[in-house]
Amino acid sequence: MSTLPPTLGPSFRRAEPDARRLSLIEACARVLAKAGAAGASVRAIAQEAGVSPGLIGHYFGGVDALVTETYAHVDAQVSAALDAAVAAAGGDPCARLEAFVTASFAPPIGTRALLATWIAFWSLVTARGDIARQHDEQYAGYRARLEALLADCGVAADALRLAAISTTALVDGLWLELCLSPGCFTVAEAGAMARRHLDGVISPDRAPG
Question: CA-to-CA distance for 208 and 136, rounded, in angstroms?
Fold first, then answer.
């Protein structure tokens, strides 16, 4: 007989597997940040999560599948932060575009912890075909969202692809340097550089020479 209160027992049992899966995913992200992809073993992740190593096999079938789901989970968290920034910017298309671009420079995206986890994922792109495909899909989704925001600001359809690629490269570079060397420039300065780039993309005739 269950010792859980009757009113809580069924819902608790339904939620428990999801909660355990999430705890393993979060533990995997922490291990990747601390030890890199090479250190993300079943034993290390289980120890980080405070569970038996057998649970990783039970819920994911192995460490490779867990890393794949962790990559998707971290990407979803980044996407949620970007969505929140765009929503908070209101209805002005250019304000929404600027919010999407500059959100990467501040927490929860602009942090060394996220950078460390992301570097571990990047290190697997050349080693695992499934991670390479996942990387391509995730970045394609980011660029598609950026293209839509650029289009809302009046960027011509034939210019959208390269505008999104150049903006993504700028954001990635600034984000990387901010996380690696935060004393080099500030979040505000990163935002100002990004806005200058966007001004040139949206109104190239008014871009500084």
Answer: 33
